[in-house]
């Protein structure tokens, strides 16, 4: 009886490793803009999610456009520190530095659950991912400059559904900004990155 149990665990571990590897490839490809982009060269750009056949029309947006991929990989097999069994999570942007002024963010959910993008200032010397997690397993959004959490639309909403995009345009001064997904447990599971505005 012990051999079939070990074999089952080995198969589960192998499937988990392959899933993690594929998720990493998805994150790299998503960060490169292969899942969608808004270049500002036409009236609309089409963004198609990796896990869904749905698409979102993203209007031409002002300023520098930053494409942000939101996602999770794995599933119950991979787990996560949130204990929700939804797998490892990621949030990545297609650029790390932009000029000051108008910056538009297109957040595309390539995962299997809802995500969002919240833009928060990040003080010099403070590491991304170091915000205190409080009630509701979320970080404090005080000082937020805006968010993209509206499926198929601009600004705040109830979360971006799998395969959809949301967007927001902000005026940013030089400094550092942290992008976070502030749905319960997602920040703790690694959904953050930093953008430097020069």
Task: Explain the overall architecture.
By secondary structure, this protein is an alpha+beta fold. It has a single domain (2-197), classed as Immunoglobulin-like. It contains 1 helix and 11 strands, in the order H-E-E-E-E-E-E-E-E-E-E-E. A 5-stranded mixed β-sheet has the order 5-11-10-7-8, with no helix packed on it. Strands 4-3-6-9 form a 4-stranded mixed β-sheet. The radius of gyration is 17 Å and the shape is globular. 38% of the residues are buried. Residues 17-54 and 75-85 have low confidence and may be disordered.
CATH topology: Immunoglobulin-like
What best-fitting shape do the alpha-carbon axes yield? globular
Average pLDDT figure: 78
Radius of gyration: 17 Å
The helix/strand order is HEEEEEEEEEEE
- Percent of residues in helical segments? 10-25%
Percentage of residues in strands: 25-35%
Largest sheet: 5 strands, mixed
Query: Which CATH class?
Result: Mainly Beta
What is the distance, rounded to the nearest whole angstrom, between the alpha carbons of the first and last residues?
62 Å
CATH fourth-tier homologous superfamily: Cupredoxins -  blue copper proteins
**Order of neighbouring strands in the sheet with most strands:** 5-11-10-7-8
Structural class comes to: alpha+beta
CATH architecture: Sandwich
The total count of strands amounts to 11
- Count of DSSP-assigned helices: 1
Oligomeric organization of the protein chains: single chain
Low-confidence stretches: 17-54, 75-85
Number of discrete domains: 1
